[in-house]
Write a structure and sequence with these properties.
By secondary structure, the protein is an alpha+beta fold. The chain is 23% helix and 20% strand. It folds into two domains: 64 residues, no CATH class; 70 residues, RNA-binding S4 domain (Structural Genomics Hypothetical 15.5 Kd Protein In mrcA-pckA Intergenic Region, Chain A), CATH 3.10.290.10. A hairpin with a 4-residue loop joins strand 4 and strand 5. The radius of gyration is 20 Å and the shape is elongated.
Length: 137
């Protein structure tokens, strides 16, 4: 069984490059007034995790009406949230011929006896030699 990324994931993997600049702007809706800033931002920018939005609030990449804010600040109706940040682009995972002990495999499931020390997926500084690379092969 081989892993096949969704069309959206495949496009993200192919995007290449080092960083992508993102720029978003949205106004807080009346029904979101009173929420913590990170919660309101998560509703306005659902394509990003709340943890990432919290980081951007802390480092000033996400501002409120042009001013720095804190994660715990309350959102006010009509205020403008502006996001100016950069995202590190993902690199394409490469298939590698790494021997695996596959206990069971069918159309929907693969059970692998993963050896201790085998990293599960690529990450910064470790682009290969992982279980995910082996499953792609």
């Amino acid at each position: 069984m081989k892993y096949a990324p969704s069309d959206k994931q495949a496009e993200e993997l192919r995007s290449g490059g080092d960083h992508e600049q993102i720029s978003r702007c949205a106004s807080v809706a009346p029904e979101d007034a009173g929420l913590r800033l990170d919660q309101a931002a998560a509703r306005l920018f659902p394509e990003f995790s709340r943890a990432r939005l919290q980081e951007w609030i802390k480092d000033g990449s996400l501002s409120v009406d042009g001013r720095a804010a804190k994660v715990r600040d309350k959102a006010l109706a009509g205020t403008e949230l502006r996001l100016e940040a950069s995202l590190q682009n993902q690199v394409e995972w490469q298939a590698e011929a790494i021997p695996l002990n596959i206990c069971h495999e069918d159309a929907d499931l693969m059970v692998i006896d993963k050896p201790a020390g085998l990293t599960v997926h690529p990450a910064a500084g470790l682009p290969g030699g992982t279980l995910a690379n082996a499953v792609l092969a």
